[in-house]
Amino acid sequence: MSEVKDITSRDVDFAKWYTDVVKKAGLVDYSSVKGSMIICPYGYAIWENMQKILDAKFKETNHENVQMPMFIPESLLNIEKEHVEGFAPEVAWVTYGGSEKLDERLCVRPTSEVLFCDYYKKIIKSYRDLPKLYNQWCTIVRWEKTTRPFVRSREILWQEGHTMHATESEALNETLQMLHIYEDFQRNYLAIPVIVGKKTEKEKFAGAIASYSLEAMMYDGVALQNGTSHYFGQGFAKSFGIQFLDKDNTLKTPYQTSWGVTTRMIGSLIMVHGDDRGLVLPPNIAPIKVIIIPIGTDEQIELETKKISDELKKSNISYVVDNSNKTPGYKFAQAEVKGYPVRIEIGKRDLENKEITIVRRDTLEKVKINSAEITTYLPSLFNDIQKNMYNKALARRDSMIYEAKNYEEFKEIATNKPGFIKANWCGDVACENKIKEEFNMKSRCLIDDEEINGNCVVCNNKATKRLYFGKQY
Amino acid sequence: MSEVKDITSRDVDFAKWYTDVVKKAGLVDYSSVKGSMIICPYGYAIWENMQKILDAKFKETNHENVQMPMFIPESLLNIEKEHVEGFAPEVAWVTYGGSEKLDERLCVRPTSEVLFCDYYKKIIKSYRDLPKLYNQWCTIVRWEKTTRPFVRSREILWQEGHTMHATESEALNETLQMLHIYEDFQRNYLAIPVIVGKKTEKEKFAGAIASYSLEAMMYDGVALQNGTSHYFGQGFAKSFGIQFLDKDNTLKTPYQTSWGVTTRMIGSLIMVHGDDRGLVLPPNIAPIKVIIIPIGTDEQIELETKKISDELKKSNISYVVDNSNKTPGYKFAQAEVKGYPVRIEIGKRDLENKEITIVRRDTLEKVKINSAEITTYLPSLFNDIQKNMYNKALARRDSMIYEAKNYEEFKEIATNKPGFIKANWCGDVACENKIKEEFNMKSRCLIDDEEINGNCVVCNNKATKRLYFGKQY
């Protein structure tokens, strides 16, 4: 059980707990390439599940996958002014091809707006060419100084959708449609109760008119932005000179969106659901739903293990069998580190009663069931676990959201209580900046479903908006 | 029909025909990033099918997907001497991160042997850690001077398997297992009759003990290497100091393989099967198997189109409907450019006889069938098309393989006849080099199933091997 003892308690040192879990669960490993990580088989299998589910949803909504170049010539990056200012400080520059110095340096894409625009300029000529609904799965690079597995790293696996529309309302609908696809996915598959809303002017994406984000609260009360969907209006399109001949025979500029989620969602999964024993994976995203642990090497136990395995296979339930020569205790602990939603123990004494022991990872509750019932029992158990994990995360999140009516209250909460703070705001960036400087809290997103009643939590002028504030890593 | 008229005849200018087809079928487009291409939705959908089929085969054979860093520090690339000499001249170098010059420059991976070895050194300690059977799907970069869509480009989408084994025989088996998985895939899905064999010392991969390749012959008789599987022995492992404690309690060095295929297979698909009307896709790899073309806008035709579409959907047969306002002739031509295996025409006169017209893309043969039979008719038609395409490609390939008994014969064939030449060889690289210099033909691979009887086609000394020679792009 040495493995488990090596996990730092999450209440003692959350950052250390996190790196212990990602490492011991076999999700990532460190490489000798500074700032880059290795995604190990178990971590990559989670990403493959995320890709499969999301990609199907993108295709259902008529999006098509493409692959754009990974390099952006400096002159191309420079076309949209706000955008280049946002990204140039954190890109990696290729300056040599073999032994030859390049005439123009190329950055490794930090995001691909300019590449898509450059292409759209070429292929969008008429209203018949619209909408264009492209997406790509790829790796992007941002030259971060400090890194943290899945959460902040120099290389990021993600998908980026880039769409062009004939009208503003179509583009706005697309922005919200994709935001809600993300939201449903994170709630229903990842069991993460994300808060969804519009970013402030200060926090929006470089070049966007409006950015929407999905904000998840980690166990320690810190916010993690789990995805974004942007409405660009005609900004990029104008900079790139993209125009189409509309039905009325006039030249118009199209409206644009982009949206993306990354492997950071794996970081959220860990930090929302994990506990001191390790990872806890929701059944709907777990690459392996069940671990079978035979206790002992008796022939009858072997037969039962084989029988149960065959049943699971037939019912299309993913599983592994731990046949190692370790002790049961060690195996249980390892299964808990890995976060398999359900553990089946097959022991001698149970067998005599035609029973097997089922342990759910989320609550660690044990039940004995008749082994013949296994494939009817499991699907409803998975449902229960999925729901319970969501509700537990929701309850914890809600218990860590506070309302601050004035600056004193804000200070009191920000200083003493981890979590999010809801507050009224006048709309002035100076007040947002003050919260950032004083408490290291950024605005997460606007609250759009609550009445605005009162004054700005910073300057005390009349409030025009309400905001979530939260710390980030 | 302007689109079709714009395709150059493949017998007039094959290179031009190829670029016309990749462009007009909507597979790729040129980007303003020199040397990089854009893979368009239809081209990317073919790659997705290839990935899906191969990935399932990799997983069936117990391989696991991972993701390694995309950058390689120069010092890491330098560890294996032959390897760095092979790749250093063609890598892209990152020298700046944001505005800061890097202490050590990083190349964008041209292949990931050194990254896997660096990682394996860390995680392989005992015989229990073996075998390690990792694969990754990613983009690699090679700084090519001249490019050709799918065939040679600066950015390449591929998969690379990297495995480590306790024994030589296990590693050799793995090398051949993966070679045969590729071979089966290319024969059965791509309908490409690949020639499979070992590379000569001169042509093997930088750092390998043995390289095996899959050699496809294009319509113009030129060879395209469609994939490789390498046996590394202990070379890299020794350079990296990878050792494991074996069952007998002694430290041993493991044996290694690597294997990969790329989007180049799409290039082969086009150049093996395409014709002057455009692409011809084998049903087993086509993203869309059927195009339905309603002729006219009559209500009855609309109903029948809907009925047929529903039937295909129910039978899980991928299809599109061309509802555009173009002429039937234009639609037929477009369908042919795209290479959909089967076209269904729904016309007024046919309807009166309860018939629909079926046109297969490979032979352009037309038949009329009772529309009620469609979903039983199609699967067997797909089978026929698949087989016919393979046999046609095989017959053409075989008709363009020649035997040269001596240098005069070799010269005669190499000068006048496109295709491959089989010849005896003494095993001396000087003779291989002479063929390369005189005729611009490289050895493709060794022939291992034919008796060696005679003298070297170049030096006339006793032959010890037989080779395929062929030109490449």
Structure, explained:
Two copies of one chain form a homodimer. In chain A, a hairpin with a 5-residue loop joins strand 12 and strand 13. The mean pLDDT of chain A is 96. In chain A, helix 3 crosses helix 7. Chain A is α+β, with helices and mostly antiparallel strands and 473 residues long. Chain A has a seven-stranded mixed beta sheet, sandwiched between helices. Chain A has a five-stranded mixed beta sheet with strand order 16-15-17-18-19, with helices on both faces. Chain A contains 15 helices and 23 strands. At the A-B interface, strand 2, helix 3, strand 3, strand 4 and strand 5 of A face strand 2, helix 3, strand 3, strand 4 and strand 5 of B. Strand 5 of chain A pairs antiparallel with strand 5 of chain B, so a sheet runs across the interface.
Write out key terms for the chains shown:
homodimer; 473 residues; alpha+beta; seven-stranded mixed beta sheet; five-stranded mixed beta sheet; 23 strands; 37% helix
**Helix share bin of chain A:** 25-40%
Measured distance between first and last alpha carbons of chain A: 31 Å
The major sheet of chain A is characterized as: 7 strands, mixed
Write down the overall mean pLDDT of chain A: 96
Q: What's the multimeric state?
A: homodimer
- How big is the Rg of chain A? 25 Å
The low-confidence runs of chain A, each spanning 5 or more residues with pLDDT under 50, are none
Shape category of chain A: globular
Strand order of the biggest β-sheet of chain A? 3-7-8-14-11-10-9
* Most extensive protein-chain contact, per-chain counts: A-B, 53 and 53 residues
Structural class of chain A: alpha+beta
Q: Total number of helical segments of chain A?
A: 15
How much of the sequence lies in strands of chain A comes to 25-35%
In total, the number of strands of chain A is 23
